[in-house]
Amino acid sequence: DLQMTQSPSSLSASVGDSVTITCRASQTMSRYLNWYQQKPGKAPELLIYTVSTLQTGVSSRFSGSGSGTDFTLTISSLQPEDFATYYCQQTYSTQWTFGQGTKVEIK
Amino acid sequence: QVQLVQSGAEVKKPGASVKVSCKVSGYTLTELSMHWVRQAPGKRFEWMGGFDPEDGETVYPRSFQGRVTMTEDTSTDTAYMELSSLKSDDTAVYHCVTYRASTWAFHSWGQGTLVTVSS
After folding, report:
1. CA of A33 vs chain B CAs: smallest distance (Å)
2. Are A49 and B112 a contacting pair at CB < 8 A?
3. Are B36 and B70 in contact, with CB atoms under 8 Å apart?
4. Second label for B117, Cα 20 to 30 Å away, from A64, B10, B23, B103?
5. Nearest to B65 by CA among B43, B87, B52, B48
């Protein structure tokens, strides 16, 4: 199965900081890479699909990029509502898989 | 706007089965491709399968084949996921999610149903 590894597993940042989360695939894949945000006690919400397309209503502070095996989610100018856990997901292979998550905490 | 409301928490014994429901509003079930995802405590999300709109069939990953059954009642716009031969490591929060083939992503999520497997 196509394994997805996120780094870091957690990070601390301040409001206004820019942060980057990486998602690495165990083999080269196409552009079917999505990012979700989950806040405590809530279901995840789609942020970005197919690497870089922002879901309707999502702030332009969020951006995605990458290709091959390496993909990134960047949050520019962190806001209080951005402190959450972020997950990547691939829908490229026949066995869809998620990364283990990256928790973004307030410093 | 799609809304997905799931059934309540369940406690089951090892070897039993559980059936979780997911009521759709805002759309009809026939307009959607419903999938299921679970997250065990401290673990990553696991995709359990769902309706493939291209093939018109329900697909299941290898890890769940033979143990999970997904059905739909279009008269009530309710989707169901039944998992059999439960083990303790099936303890997880189970979510129904809608998939869009145009974006290859999960767009709407149910609130989650906690299934606890314990003797």
Report:
1. 8
2. no
3. yes
4. B23
5. B48
In tens, the pLDDT along A35-57 reads: 999 999 999 999 999 999 999 99
pLDDT at B53: 87
- % of chain B exceeding 70 in pLDDT: 100
Nearest to B105 among A49, A100, A101 (CB): A49
Mutate to test the interface with B, among A26, A46, A85 (most CBs of B within 10 A): A46
Dihedral through CA B31, CA A94, CA B116, CA B99, nearest 10?
-20
Q: Are A33 and A50 in contact (CB under 8 A)?
A: yes
Query: Contact at 8 Å (CB) between A19 and A74?
Result: yes
Alpha-carbon distance A51 to A32, whole Å? Answer: 7
pLDDT of residue A48: 98
Average pLDDT over residues B67-80: 97
Alpha carbon distances (Å) from B11 to A59, B18, B43: 39, 9, 20
For A5, counting Cβ atoms within 10 Å of its Cβ (0-12 exposed, 13-18 middle, 19+ buried), the class is: middle
Choose, out of A7, A54, A96, A103, the residue to mutate when testing the contact with B (most B CBs < 10 Å). A96
